[in-house]
């Protein structure tokens, strides 16, 4: 039975319309779990809304399973930086405090590892008051040791949650998925995405200015996106200055008819300059192939640098086309400037919704779930047979680089249910 | 029969999920209207997507009722400025050109009036290439003579459309609603809204810095919103620095228990400073009442300035509270800085979707419709019994300023169908 | 003798070339004042520079008259907000700590009044580490009670300093002049000025977009500058979008030939739109005259609002020209957005120089002085016979609005020594 | 005689105080050169200023040697992009037109090469009206073929000028030096510098956020500066977030006591994170040494990538310190984002001054000169024995990495005349 549950999605209702689906509840394994009246019912801010709770038989918010005094909330941030992390922290702290009267909130320092090795920081509304205006994570994070996907997996698979359950602990575990690439398997839109696209557009704009100012200028902008090209796709659509956008979902090749170099030459001939946006994970197979042809006895750090697709393709362009045209290639990698900026207004609001959903769900006794709109189980990837990608192709006029085999495969994928971000509602 | 049609909504399917509903089609009044194969079917960018057109029996995009060569497209912009106007113009021009091969596009200068009194501008992809990076409208606009609501009404009521129909002209009329206040009756989210909220947040931030630096400092920020408080609400939620947000939908009063002044005094006592955000149209009835008490013989321009709620309330605060506390009041009105900025990345993408929807619909022979997500017929207003407003009240801790009568009324409103923006999906 | 001293400038050498001139020294009234070796001589950062101290017989930095342990430094900020205030505070704290080992630094809360009525804040390098990224003043300020000019005067006139001297106290008093208007009588360039011009330019840009989008659109931007028009002049020169710039130094009139209205009409006829920048203090005499013609029995708050030149002139333009042309007037007042922003890079560096100069001077035993480049005794005003103003006139093509009498007067002024900002070296 | 001239500086008076020094004049080699009344004398904007021309016997502006109608002005931009290039172009076009009535202005497309191979663009005030708001160069530029230093040299050495002279042509050649690194041999401050420092500070800020969020996080920011470290130095001073700044002028070493790695370990131990700013040209000799130790048979593109000091040092840090501490290194290279942005307000004004100086000088018959403040003949480099560098060392607390030999050498350099930027006047 446990097994079958592992294969199901565990989602929870966000405040306004997200659906609750098979989310484990503390009462399932703790007997005689006392329930309390939800303090929100006395909150004057919610007094008008409150009336509706009853009508709608909204069990999530009717009762809570924790008393304000007994709650000790811990917040940990893991993985790479992402705009909005501090806003989520702020809203968790303020939401717990102002909505449910919870005053004991700890920040676990330095990511997942911080649970066993580091100090904790006491988080108060006063302490977090201004942190949403700063990038980064005030409680620190760590990469490697704790992969965001693994944690989501472990929550989903009840790695953490199961252990807690086995011991009968009254602990609610909630995840707010965070990935700047938008490639989280379980939700459709990750916080910080809007902000990242905005900043990525700035880099594209700079590359465009650069390319335009030189004869046969080629601006290459590498953007985040190891497994999915959402940032590259959206930034391309937003900027309107891109001539070619390469993403992991859409294979391409360099040489020969229909290849990238042919297209670059064509564009330079027509316009005298071009901008190429490339997601981190695009064309990795090309690099791998290529690596076999180079002497492998060299310094590991050299290999490492070659795996940077932006660097690699910039050098390839320089070398390959020198026979045909002389040109200038400018390479930009705004990754770290994007990761570190504070979230913009729309992400701030979105972070608040996510934080509040997490709080409401946990207070209502649910555990082992992640919050976010329209939860799905597959890794979130750009659907290249979708209209959004078609719109991009049409806006850049780039070839699809697809051969008939790819199209067939793509259509199969298309048959599966659609996602918010790859769809048309922004 | 005409009458019944007037009472119905005329919407059209956007590219990704918007619904077509009772939109008039040229073939309804032009007999033997020839149809052509949609050139998009040969567009390589849409080649993969194209396959789906057939499967989905997508009549909108299967056939077109205009040949590329015969099309003369006219673009006119009306009403106040709004971020994204130039992006919409750009995408109309580029979309017509690259998607449907339409090369005759004219811009009508100076708004609606330009149809009879002004020159036109030839719009080419090259001419509009960079305009999305500039604020304003490159073809000019005008206020007063042509009210956005009237145009939408006239399109909806077939004022324009009917006349065209009567004469049997092969003309498709499409509206892309624009209002920085988000108070358009027929759609849920207007373009430029995200950008406006972002910029409004900047003004709030400045007011917060100002207020914080002075003993009993009060920062007053007036934002756009004559009939609805969306920008004020969203900017407040995004900034987290606001102590009180006043909008037209939520009545309030100044003096006495539960009034605004009491709240201001309380906040100043607690924190030593506060920020007040007020939408343009909030408290207009208070001003009107007040005007009767002043001598009316004065200069009209003086009256005019009193109608500025930001100015009025700033002066009221200064005068009223001087007995209790000495304080500094700083008033900011960022209206013109917000209106004039270029649209941000997410609005750029949204503008593209709207422009493409308009083009696809018109080419497919539909007319007399407006584009936008989730079309509804009521004026779009903040629903103060909704959770988003509750969340705002909870985030600012301000009183609801509601008396029991208001609550009852609010609940009635609540019974009606919900809107996207006032709901929880951002 | 005291009297003659009052009439002289008391300047002090900044680090790199400012001149020391008649600055009082503690040793003048405290006998047997012990001197110590300057700890900077052991500071490895200054070790190479240090060698030069000896060669140049640099008495300022050779000896200090305070031991690190005995110093209690107090920082107070007065008057309106200005970009860079927090940077100056930060650099005073860090400079005292890292350069001279001074660890007791107090912030006096709430401006000058804070000396007798408020708490103090202990300022450590850690506490001030990030404050230069925030606008405002972390220790608060107050207006009215303490006028920046009065303080500068009182320091200059030895109001404070004399009293200290009379009592034989070992206290060094240093002022770092702050005024966003750049109208400080004793120095040439105030910190925050560059930042203010940058932000003012943003507002002008918005007004330009607005004006350009409407037929006969007039954008009016009111900028700070009660006594001098530096911000207006520099923002006008930087933006290149302004058609007319009005400053307190250059009188103008509205009606008749050569008047403002004639010029506005001319410009609208030529270009179809225009941007008018007006400094706070420009045309005040016009308002005063005008006030006599209105009924004075009205509400004081009404009068107050009329004194706003931006508002007043906007209404005058609307009324006066309605006979000739219909137009739209958009008025923007970015004052509070400008005051509250953090300082830009060049101001950050300038604030550091000022703070370090203050520290070095005080540690060296000087007192009763202000720091800044090229100290002069007259109120700093735009010299309208100078080339910078000519350049502005030429860039806007506006008339000089001068009558022969003004020119004669202007030339007299010209005879006096020139200022940095009104000169050509930026 | 030619030789002696080559060794002298050829400077020209800027409008406000720059000195004219041995600048060749057309009348020296064209006999009977007619002179005309300067049209500025009738320019109402300069009418007040004009009176002064006479008094000051200002020969530059009294007479001009070109009639408006006969002038054909050509503008060419060479070398890499730099903020402000378009502003200079704009002000040359507008200045020639509005100040001297010159209407024939051509832009040479694509840099120096454009003189023989490319088309020209007609530049009118209308065409250039908005270009100062865009980055890049609207007339294009080219690198390599034409080195800015070579051009300056050739103008100085009369390469171009001499040829013109030999043929007795009535052509005035003027250079406005441009280098984002501020390392121009003949002037003290290049346009675009302020803007570049501002943008560089943004990158440093992002690196700081990144570093702070990870345990032992090291942020590495590579900035422009192949021969001089001005941008690195000023951005470091402005941001206050940097722990170590490495520039070409100040040698350093990696291993051993007093080396970079020791300092990094120390800082990480103290603070848990650090930010390292490194100018392009810093430590090149270390890379060169290192290259000999690697197998040289590898792909040229690999070598190329190793020459990137930012990449190289990032990898060195990763490898070298792995024994002592585990840490995250984030590398940022904002070069192309800095080069491509529009100039800020203060640079806009500075560009205007430079453009006007060039125009006035050329119209007055001078030729073969460059414009700019305080012209000197040595390559402009950071003087590491100067107080500005000491201030940086003190602000970062980094070691000087100097050994006694370096100090002696540095002192010699110190003996030579000082520069504006390395001094204290910003």
Automatic annotation (TrEMBL), chains A, B, C, D:
Residues 74-360 form the Phosphofructokinase domain. Keywords: Allosteric enzyme, ATP-binding, Glycolysis, Kinase, Magnesium, Metal-binding, Nucleotide-binding, Transferase. Coiled coil: none annotated. SUPFAM superfamilies: Phosphofructokinase. Its cofactor is Mg(2+). It catalyses: beta-D-fructose 6-phosphate + ATP = beta-D-fructose 1,6-bisphosphate + ADP + H(+). Pfam families: PFK (PF00365). It comes from the Eukaryota. InterPro entries: ATP_PFK, PFKA, Phosphofructokinase_dom, PKF_sf, PyroP-dep_PFK_TP0108. This is Phosphofructokinase domain-containing protein.
């Amino acid at each position: 039975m446990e097994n079958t549950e592992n294969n199901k999605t565990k989602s929870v209702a966000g405040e306004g319309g997200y659906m609750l689906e098979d989310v484990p509840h503390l009462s399932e394994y703790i007997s005689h779990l006392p329930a309390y009246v939800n303090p929100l019912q006395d909150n004057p801010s919610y007094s008008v809304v409150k009336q509706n709770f009853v009508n709608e038989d909204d069990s999530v918010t009717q009762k809570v399973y924790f008393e304000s005094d007994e709650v000790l909330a811990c917040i940990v941030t893991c993985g790479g930086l992402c705009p909005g992390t501090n806003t989520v922290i702020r809203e968790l702290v303020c939401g717990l405090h102002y909505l449910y009267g919870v005053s004991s909130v700890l920040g676990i320092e330095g990511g997942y590892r911080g649970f066993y090795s580091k100090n904790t920081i006491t988080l108060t509304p006063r302490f977090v008051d201004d942190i949403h205006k700063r990038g980064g994570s005030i409680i620190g994070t760590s990469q490697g040791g704790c992969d965001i996907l693994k944690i989501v997996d472990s929550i989903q698979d009840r790695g953490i949650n199961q252990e807690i359950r086995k011991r009968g602990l009254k602990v609610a575990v909630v995840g707010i998925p965070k990935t700047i690439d938008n490639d989280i398997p379980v939700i459709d839109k990750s916080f910080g995405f809007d902000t990242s696209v905005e900043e990525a557009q700035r880099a594209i704009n700079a590359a465009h200015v650069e390319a335009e100012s030189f004869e046969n200028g080629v601006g290459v902008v590498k953007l985040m996106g190891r497994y999915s090209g959402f940032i590259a796709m959206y930034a391309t659509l937003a900027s309107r200055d891109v001539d070619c956008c390469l993403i992991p979902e859409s294979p391409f090749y360099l040489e020969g008819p229909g290849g990238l170099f042919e297209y670059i030459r064509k564009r330079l001939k027509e316009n005298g300059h071009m901008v190429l946006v490339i997601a981190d994970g695009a064309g990795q197979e090309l690099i791998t192939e290529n690596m076999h042809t180079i002497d492998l006895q060299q310094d590991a750090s050299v290999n490492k640098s070659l795996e940077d697709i932006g660097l690699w393709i910039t050098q390839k362009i320089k070398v390959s086309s020198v026979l045909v045209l002389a040109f200038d290639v400018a390479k930009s990698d705004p990754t770290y400037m994007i990761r570190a900026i504070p979230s913009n207004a729309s992400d701030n609001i979105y972070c608040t919704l996510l934080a509040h959903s997490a709080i409401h769900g946990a207070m209502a006794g649910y555990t082992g779930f992640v919050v976010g709109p329209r939860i799905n189980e597959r890794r979130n990837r750009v659907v290249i047979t979708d209209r959004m990608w078609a719109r991009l192709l049409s806006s850049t006029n780039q070839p699809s680089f697809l051969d008939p085999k790819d199209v067939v495969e793509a259509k199969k994928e298309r048959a599966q249910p659609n996602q918010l971000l790859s769809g048309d509602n922004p």
